[in-house]
Amino acid sequence: MLALMTLGAWLSAPAASQVQPPPDEGEVYRVALEAVEFESLGSRFKKHVLSASTFDPGGLWRGLDEETLKTAPYLDPRRRLTYVKPETVESFLTAIDTQKPLPKELRRLPAFLLVEAAEARAITARNGWRDFERRNAIAPGSVSVSRIGFDPSASQALLYVDFICGSLCGSGRFVLLERSNGTWRVVKIDAYMES
Question: pLDDT digits over 59-74, tens only?
């Protein structure tokens, strides 16, 4: 009887007090990565290396002095991302402070080859990126993604996608997604930097 009363109380509770299921980060990453276009840099291959762990893009804006931010407020995510819920931006800025491996299901994305950091360091140490690219039929350049910030209802998500194709070649974008009827879709891709 007590179990039925507890179940009845839980079912009659307002939706806001019920626990939201955790967002599917793998799905958010998949939708974001499939929406962003990456250069093939003259290669006939379209597949790119994807770092198997998240990275922290905060070095692009952390430590900027107030004078710089006055003249270039678009460099500060809090001032730039006015189209994003403030709680989503704050969640993103908190999330990027710690890194973690990407979800394993991203290994199935046909446009990417996930590479662990140790493997990337070994390839770089032996100066073997061109051979690695040819052997794996991938285009030059690598992609990294940040951790994801979610709003409290898990209906809005924000992440940063980075593409590095050389010492003076690359781009970085904020990607905003929203979930409606259980489906994530990209609503805005904001080019933060390009070289």
Answer: 999 999 999 999 999 9
